[in-house]
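Task: encode each sequence below as structure tokens.

Item 1
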Amino acid sequence: MLIAVLGVPAGCGWFGSAPIKEESPAITVPPATHEDVLKLYLQTMSALGSNDPARQSDVFYEVEREYKKAPTTAAALRYALALITPGHPGAKPSEGKKLLEFLLSNPDRLVPAERTFADILLTQVVARLKSETETRRLLETLDLRNRSQANSDKRLLTQQTEEIARLKRALLDAEKKLDLIKDIERSLLERSSTSPGNRDTPSEAQSPPTGR
């Protein structure tokens, strides 16, 4: 009996069991790398930095249109990138800075690579805006000093002109006084030469002829 039972083929009789299915290995998707996540952003930056104005314009308005149509986190980050990228007509760094600050105020909506990228972009645009503000301040200071110097030079020139005119008037007055003194001296000399004590004595009168 025992031998008979043991001789029952596997899968039959009392000790039978369902056939074992071989499981297929799970398909694993490799996690996206930083390069994969940032690829579109980097392509956008490269296109906006090209020397082709038509391409720059097309890319910017395509990014803007996508953001306004569906302002997802990715679209917002791409639009912020377009706004702060210099060298094209659509650049508005101040607006891009505000959008980046808004995105980073909700960091959970960004994947780590996007969060790091947004931090870098914000740091760059803040530094650039600060540099531009300082440059404008220096230019305004320089312009103010130039205007002040020009006004100072103008005042100095006016003073010099007035001083020259005053000296000319003083010289003219001195010449007039000198001419008057010369006239007086000439008049005194003329009077002195015609005074009675200096006149020549008349020749003695002829004595009457003597008789023969």
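Item 2
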Amino acid sequence: MNNAKSKNIYTVFKKFNKILNSSNFNIYFISGGSLLGIIRENKFLKFDDDIDFETLSSELRLHKDELINIFKKKGFLVKYKSHNGLYPKLNFFKNGVKISLGSFEVKNSFWAVSRIKKIPIYFFKKIKKIKFNETYVNTPKNPEMYLRYIYNNWKIEDRSGYFYNLEYYRHDTLYSLQYKIRRILHLIKD
């Protein structure tokens, strides 16, 4: 990632994060490769194509209109989508940077699920702010535990991005099964 592109990503991220932190919306955290880069390398990963955040579907439904209005007023292009009313997601675009706010439905007192993933609900119950690049961003209270859950050995750099913990994926949807198979086939080709 060249310096101009990197600076643009950090500028958009800081603006996005500042707006999100000042809203009434507070049950969310940075996730996936974005969190991995922040914790492991103190920067965004150069091969990551967007910045990921997660929230609960109930929270996103409650604050959806507020978030869309706020971000549009601040010059972001905002796109909303859901799958048959489930798993709402907001994608924010500015200056070529994409930021995704995905959501998880609460399945029971232990699990939160998206279309293809599942995570323990406790990651949403305790959220903390950490300082990153002159701003404070929400993370799970124990980001290392979250990363271990998603990636297993998250401390080892793996540029392929295909070594997720299979427990991270749901086992009750055809889409999830197809997604796992595509990841495995990609590994075989490499």
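Check on item 2: The two ends are 23 Å apart (CA to CA). Residues 3-22 form the longest helix (20 residues).
End of task.
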